[in-house]
Amino acid sequence: MTIPDAVSNLFVESLKLSAKQRTVLDVINKHPRGITAARIATIMDTTVNTLRGHLDELLAQEAIRAEAPNVGSRGRPALVYYSRVPDNRAIALEYITLVRVFAQYLLETTDDPRAAAYDIGRTWAREIATEPCDESELLVRLAQMGFDPVPVEEPHNLADTRLAAPLAEQPNAQHPEAPEAAEMADGTATSRPDHPGRPIIELRSCPFLHPDKDTPATVCDIHMGMLAARKGPDGRGFTLTPHHGDVLCHVTVINEHATATDIGDSPPYSDKTQ
């Protein structure tokens, strides 16, 4: 039995394609039900013979597959080409939705959803990296994840940093029926700008915000846990101050002697999460 390929190996960014091969692949991507070489050639205003080398290279890199249609006509049927390269946008939307559903499930089924979400975030961080992460590396990682991070050059009042699109339409972005969510909205560090740390990065977008749906509070807790587990080279940690009203989310570097309870934007966890 053939073992499935890891999707990450099929991202177009992982393939070594020429500009023309990328164009051929784009045409095939737009035809999920398959397309023949003759049809590709017509769309690209070229000949099948010219196209053949590009198709062979895409086949060699396993970016596409070719199948003979199951038809009863005489003669050798034309091969139909299918893309194996995933749609990055579709993947992002599907898995962002999955994370939101999972976070909501924690709120509705777990005795302490904030602690569970935070622990999940810490486990996530350990899975993706074990080496210390400095501020510049963290900035790159957050940019890759879609948070549009911007370094905070000088300390300033968090209340002066406003969202470009206020989230007043999403009050607290919490699940209204969960008591933990209301507690979070009133008690996190977003309402306490004097926590023992300094903002180093402000996040100007969030891949988990939905224009028409509230974002479960546990989504933020997962990211708090992930950041808390990403220690800097000097041993200091990071934490997340979630947005409050129209104040942007901030990544904060934790002062050397600060504890999770001091910071306040991490739930008051037991020693097992430290």
Account of the protein in words:
This protein is α+β, with helices and mostly antiparallel strands and 274 residues long. It has 2 domains: 7-86, Arc Repressor Mutant, subunit A; 112-273, no CATH class. It has 9 helices and 7 strands, in the order H-E-H-H-E-E-H-H-H-E-H-E-H-E-E-H. It has helices at residues 19-29, 37-44, 48-60, 88-109, 113-128, 135-144, 179-187, 217-228, 260-263, and strands at residues 35-36, 64-67, 80-83, 149-151, 197-203, 238-241, 249-254. The strands form 2 sheets. The protein has a 4-stranded antiparallel beta sheet with strand order 4-5-7-6. It has a 3-stranded antiparallel beta sheet with strand order 1-3-2. Helix 1 (19-29) packs across helix 3 (48-60), helix 2 crosses helix 3 (48-60) and helix 4 (88-109) runs antiparallel to helix 5. It is elongated, with a radius of gyration of 24 Å. The two termini are 44 Å apart.
